[in-house]
Write a structure and sequence with these properties.
Helices cover 26% and strands 23% of the residues. By secondary structure, it is α+β, with helices and mostly antiparallel strands.
């Protein structure tokens, strides 16, 4: 979880840089089917390489993050803007 990323505006980016397009599409389908998450793809360029990252929209993540809390160490719950 600690990749220096945290929720700023309520949305979340999954760093899927080392997955191919088919794997990313499959993951998006699973997130939609199993958790009703609305996602989009963001293309990022780093050092002349381009990566696809999954972006979870704010409203979807708000409805999902309660499922994550028991799996995240208390010291980094601030990253998902969880209030005790």
């Amino acid at each position: 979880m600690d990749d220096r990323q945290h929720v700023h505006r309520g949305s979340v980016t999954l760093y899927t840089d080392c997955f191919n397009s088919e794997e990313i599409d499959n993951l998006r389908k699973v997130l939609t089917k199993n958790f009703d998450l609305e996602t989009t793809i963001h293309n990022k360029g780093i050092n002349n390489a381009y990566y696809k990252r999954i972006y979870i929209k704010k409203d979807s993540f708000e409805n999902f993050k309660h499922l994550l809390v028991s799996h995240i160490h208390k010291s980094i719950l601030y990253k998902i803007k969880w209030k005790f």
